[in-house]
Automatic annotation (TrEMBL):
The keyword Transmembrane applies. Residues 61-175 form the VTT domain. This is TVP38/TMEM64 family membrane protein. PANTHER family: GOLGI APPARATUS MEMBRANE PROTEIN TVP38-RELATED. It comes from Corynebacterium kalidii. It is a multi-pass membrane protein. It is found in: Cell membrane.
């Protein structure tokens, strides 16, 4: 095991410890806490929300509270834009961290056939695979960020796929939060639900593709160049 590989493994382990410790020790804010903090920043409320959301979504905790807060604080349109912008910045930060810290460890892991199979699936339909996975609500946002960091999907397609895949459910949650709390326009909620249903169909299709690729015998997977 080379020095670079050991350093990468130690770096990834340290990052995991920090993230898990923060998730356990730091309290998850409730809606009232977020609302007070964001509104207290006045003209900087948009920037404050983005900074808080990006920081929180680096941790393995649900991001739903931030999506709800976006709808309550900013309405369906601005709230959706801010929530999706926060996701884009968050996934960018996660990928840069993982690839900077763990590059050597990832290169060594590529020698494993199963890992190459996953890499192959992501390379063949990389951004589409990320798009489909982002549409599955039960997959934690931050954990998928770090998983993408271990893949070779380019940064920009991964970010675009994250925003596109997260958009249907995010817009639906933002709109419903605005309707329930602020009495917003119900028609916007109807449109977002229709988008979420369309996204669910794509999710099923893409998930089947990924499972098919992962079922390939390890010996038939071509090594990555």
């Amino acid at each position: 095991m080379g020095r670079d590989h050991r350093a990468s493994l130690l770096g990834l382990a340290a990052l995991a410890v920090v993230v898990l410790a923060a998730a356990v020790l730091l309290p998850t804010p409730d809606l009232d806490t977020i609302r007070a903090g964001v509104r207290g920043s006045g003209a900087l409320s948009w920037a404050t929300f983005l900074v808080l959301m990006v920081g929180a979504t680096q941790l393995p905790v649900p991001r739903t509270i931030w999506t709800v807060a976006a709808g309550v604080l900013f309405g369906p349109v601005v709230g959706s834009v801010l929530a999706l912008a926060g996701m884009a910045v968050s996934v960018t930060l996660s990928l840069v961290l993982v690839r900077w810290i763990g590059g050597a460890a990832v290169r060594r892991a590529e020698q494993a056939p199963r890992f190459r199979a996953l890499q192959g699936a992501l390379e063949d339909r990389g951004w589409v695979a990320v798009l489909g996975l982002r549409m599955i609500p039960v997959i934690p946002f931050s954990l998928l960020n770090y998983a993408c960091g271990l893949s070779r999907v380019p940064l920009l397609p991964c970010v675009v796929a994250t925003v596109a895949g997260s958009a249907p459910l995010t817009v639906a949650v933002v709109a419903s939060s605005d309707v329930v709390v602020n009495g917003g326009e119900p028609w916007f909620l109807g449109v977002s639900v229709a988008l979420a249903a369309a996204g669910a169909l794509l999710t099923v299709t893409e998930w089947r593709r990924i499972r098919t690729r992962m079922a390939v015998e390890p010996g038939t997977v071509k090594p990555s160049p």
